[in-house]
Design goal:
Blueprint: E1 7-14, H1 16-26, E2 33-36, E3 44-45, E4 49-50, E5 60-61, E6 65-68, H2 70-73, E7 82-90, E8 104-108, E9 120-123, H3 145-148, E10 152-155, E11 165-166, E12 177-179, H4 187-195, E13 200-204, E14 208-214, E15 218-219, E16 230-231, H5 234-245, E17 248-255, H6 259-269, E18 275-279, H7 290-293, E19 308-314, E20 316-317, E21 321-327, E22 332-337, H8 341-360, E23 371-376, E24 382-383, E25 389-397, E26 402-405, H9 414-418, E27 422-426, E28 432-433, E29 438-443
Parallel strand pairs: 1-19, 7-8, 14-17, 14-18, 15-16, 18-22, 20-25, 23-26
Antiparallel strand pairs: 2-13, 3-13, 4-12, 5-11, 6-8, 6-9, 7-10, 19-21, 21-22, 23-29, 24-28, 25-26, 25-27, 27-29
Helix pairs in contact: 1-8, 5-8
């Protein structure tokens, strides 16, 4: 950040869309890196991944049973079973395979390769399991087989060709596109990469987001409250929200209302931050120290033009005071959010979450929360200030296509926020919303 003081453009109201556009125009996707598979979970793939070998790589059994020739079990029944000589076992991972000839069968396990000569697999439940008795419930362990199996098996049902056989390449063929660039790697995608032999993958890393609360009145949960103090909920809410958005979150906790302390704390955190988020201290009070502290954070000869934090007022409720810019030698983005719990959370959803998703390199369609249209279900009309876009907590019912208000409009009502799953959006030019009116609803889950 340059040595000049932060900008304060409070003389005009910015729209929500203008502020978000400014944030997204500044934030750039993180540079790709090569990561081990488990370290890449939650990251965005930056290259198409093709299949080097077919899956499965060989014909294999989908059942525990016996590999047979279909002609040998044709017409088999419980009354007239086909009696076959058992020539050996084929287990998953078997190397040399026995060849199944006329009148022969090989015990085969799920996932094991189909041996030469065999055309189908009969499940063990269709046989006597080699015991000479009735229908088997399972196979004797390999270690016990020589002692308890008779060396032949009775098959009680016929099998068609390829029965219970997974064909080579039935999942994917060599050269197929396994995963396209832009895919977010979750557990199923990690499994596919492992299955085709990829040990590492090139991705954009998950953004590192540092969250700081400001306020001398804040006490950490688990500690005793004293007169005039409250528990710090914002840093927990925002750190959790950052994780939910796909980031690696570092919660610094509460920093006292002292500009020097806040300044040094932010400078210390720059080394591990791709994005900084502060909450509190952005209004016009005598102890709102974020503006003062950010006047010289990371300033120095290494900075270039374009650094600085712009404090502005937005035409929205809650969340009117906002700050945004870049600081430090690496021009790390910083979003300064208001301190009221609901204001900070709504601000996060509207501005910080999209910034995180943009850092991840996600497409525009996945940067913002999805929204739907829903009909207001309420006992009375909802009021909204003129010229402000209001975001009210709501409970959305997808089945009925309705949304109901949760709690009041106060920006301190944390309990109501905990029971909401959406935000009802009241446009700037609307001051009253009657029940039955259709609204835009931002889905939070």
């Amino acid at each position: 950040m340059s040595s000049s003081a932060p900008q304060d453009t409070g003389h005009r109201l910015w729209s929500v869309d203008e502020h978000l556009a400014d944030v997204l125009a500044t934030v750039r996707p993180l540079e790709p890196i090569e990561l081990q598979l488990l370290d890449a979970q939650g990251c965005v793939l930056v290259e198409d991944v093709t299949v080097p070998v077919a899956l499965p790589p060989f014909d294999n059994s989908s059942m525990d049973g016996y590999a047979v020739r279909t002609a040998d079990v044709q017409g088999a029944s419980e009354e007239f079973p086909a009696v076959l000589a058992v020539i050996g076992d084929v287990a998953a991972g078997s190397g040399e395979l026995p060849t199944v000839g006329p009148g022969e069968a090989a015990r085969i396990m799920t996932g094991a390769p189909l041996p030469p000569g065999a055309e189908a697999v009969v499940p063990v439940e269709w046989t006597d399991g080699g015991t000479g008795g009735g229908a088997a419930a399972g196979m004797s362990p390999a270690s016990a087989a020589p002692e308890h199996a008779s060396g032949e098996v009775r098959v009680h049902r016929a099998a068609e060709a390829r029965a219970h056989v997974r064909a080579r390449g039935s999942d994917v063929q060599a050269g197929d596109l396994a995963l396209a660039a832009g895919t977010v790697l979750g557990p199923p995608q990690i499994a596919l990469l492992a299955a085709i032999g990829r040990g590492t993958v090139r991705v954009r890393p998950r953004p590192r987001v540092v969250v700081l609360s400001t306020g001398s009145e804040l006490v950490q949960p688990g500690e005793a409250l004293t007169a005039g103090t409250i528990y710090d909920s914002n840093s927990f809410a925002l750190a959790a929200a950052a994780r939910d958005a796909g980031a690696i979150a570092y919660r610094v906790g509460a920093v006292a209302d002292d500009a020097d302390t806040l300044r040094s704390t932010i400078e210390d955190q720059l080394i591990r931050a791709d994005l900084l988020v502060t909450t509190g201290g952005v209004s016009v009070g005598a102890y709102d120290v974020v503006k003062e502290a950010l006047s010289s954070v990371g300033s120095g000869d290494e900075d270039v033009d374009g650094s600085g934090i712009d404090f502005r007022k937005l035409a929205m409720q809650p969340g009117k005071p906002q700050g945004f810019g870049v600081i430090g030698p690496d021009h790390t983005p910083l979003l300064a959010l208001p301190g009221n719990p609901v204001s900070s959370y709504v601000s996060f959803e509207l501005f910080v979450r999209p910034a995180i998703r943009a850092l991840m390199g996600l497409p525009d369609s996945e940067v913002r929360r999805p929204s739907v249209r829903a009909v207001l279900k309420a006992d009375k009309a909802l009021g909204s200030p003129a010229g402000r876009r209001q975001f009210l907590r709501g409970a959305y019912d997808a089945e009925s296509g309705t949304v109901s208000p949760v709690g009041g409009s106060g920006s301190h009502l944390i309990a109501a926020l905990a029971h909401a799953d959406s935000l009802m959006v009241v446009p700037e030019d609307v001051t009253s919303v009657e029940p039955g009116t259709e609204l835009e609803v931002v889905l939070l889950s």
